[in-house]
Amino acid sequence: MRRLLWLAATSAALVGGPPRFHRVAPLRAFGKAIDLRPLRPLVDVVEEEYITADSKLTKDRSVVIVTTASLPWMTGTAVNPALRAAYMVGLGYEDVTLLLPWLEDDADQKTLFNGRVFASKSEQESFVRDWIQKNAPDADASTLKLGWYPSRYATGLGSILNLDDITSHIPSDKNDIVILEEPEHLNWYRNGPRWTSRFRHVCGIAHTNYEAYAIADNFDKDGAPEEYFNVKAERFFTETVTRAHCDVVVQLSRTLRPLPHSRVENVHGVRKCFLDVGASGGPPAYQPKPGNARCYFVGKAMWAKGYTQLLVLLQDSADVDIDCYGGGPELADIQNKSKVLQTSLNFKGPADHADSSIFGAYDVFVNPSISEVLCTATAEALAMGKRVVIAEHPSNEFFYQFDTCYKVPPGDSEAFSRQLQRALDASSQDRVRYKPWASSQLPDSLRPLTWAAATDRLVQASALDARAPPARLALASLVMHSYHWGMTASPLALDLFLTMSGAGPHTPWSEWRERSIGLSSLKRGDESDSKFQEILRRNLATTSKALKNANRLSKVIQERLRKRDGAARVARHMGPTVSGRPRRRRKLREALPGPGVPDAAEEEESLLEESLFFDADEPSQKESWPRTRRFWRRLRGDVRYLSASWLEPRQFRERDRSLPKRVAARAARATQSLRRELALNRTASRYFL
Known about the structure:
The chain is α/β, with parallel strands linked by helices and 689 residues long. The chain is built from 24 helices and 18 strands.
């Protein structure tokens, strides 16, 4: 190793020495550019001169925004993508397409759209355009293009799921930039090519804390959260699909679990109707209504939305009245417990936060919730010029930059009482200093809340560094896509996966049984009774075997996750080195739970899993690609017990021991060839900036 380092230093001296930042050509295996270099964490800001051409969101490029919900369902993943697309068009982007889910079942539309049913896509498109025109009048979105992909509503998950490959519904001439709103949600149950294989740049925006939802559904007998299979599966598959399909993932706050090659940035803005209230002077421009308190809270009537924290904080502030707006399934329970604790909460029922006639005169917005990824109501209150008292939590870090923000440690009732009184006193001074004849232009302090500023932050957060290896060529991304594709390649396996996750199958299991037995296609014909009975028995035997394989598949998945956690646990205990030398990866299998060498049962499970995931027959020797199948089989056998995190840079710093010997040998030969070229002073212009 010392001789190699000396050779590298000598070659650098021969070519005059590289600059501070240098780039090495990616290695190749089997004729494809598989980059084996370490993937460094993304820097927060990339200098303009180092941004790659593919990741620059310039206004002359084509942009496709894909989301998981559509209006009139008033959820964040329907409202924010529609406003993002509209304001991008208003800011001068020439070609913007918004791809929305189309609910084919009328019952699903009635459930989500408050009883409304759209007879056609054009009818719902007219509704979406009218809503955008009303809520974003300053954005000329007449040239915005709308597209649709088939979907259904999964009651068990409370989410909309795609029914086929979404990329097949995007026109072939729009292969430039794609923005995936909730990339994990869009790809969990999708079987298709990598988004990075078709688009030049793929940017994901993570909205929802699905891990928190999974943990909230699992509690032990003492009421403490407990990690069950669905929690671990959510983590595993979220990491898998984001690593396989995204160049960069933008997370709205640090509340979310860190994802591969991700950045944290708030890329959402606030509607114009809220900013107009702030531009007009804020609460001092409105006359308080008699009977209303000076403080208010807006949120769905659920304990998870902050009502538990609010009751705790009001222990030392019982003399402060707070008006609460919102409806929900737990409203009666919240009202009863509020009366028992003798708090000063006044429940006003549901109301639109954009209605300035109701909320314009309130001075202080109170939001102690710590369950949100990024609270939209807090941003709207700040845009209206109000003082806000919020919890000191990672989900609220973006709001700390505003002078009208007061943060309180969660559960600290004394600090809450003190900060609330400060906000009320400052609001009183605002009313004294208010001048009705002042300019109605938007103050500079509120410009970070506009969609124009949010678009600028998105452009900056999605930029990639040309000096760093691209994530789309990393071996981990290719392996994760191959694994996920195998999990969802078979329609039967996909429906089993959907059923295990609580979403329910795309095709009802009764239809699967009927299709397997062949009752719908099997006809009597001219066969004799014995012949017809033989055919029916054979079909029944096939169905029985398929059902047994489906049950065993769930056990295979659980066992794989168990061994994955075992590998991570062993790594934590063993540390990065053993006896002062780098740990040899091939010794890890003996340290894992169970026998070091796969027994006959494990081999049988592997063959079963392969038969379920790959319907095609084994390729013949005459075909041109049998080596690829053998390569993936060997690779799967070597990293079967390892998680996706084991393919990260830390494992590639010494030697590529996680790879098959043939691939490692080719990588070593390519590295030696590169070093020889450097020593001969022939690659200075090719490999150094």
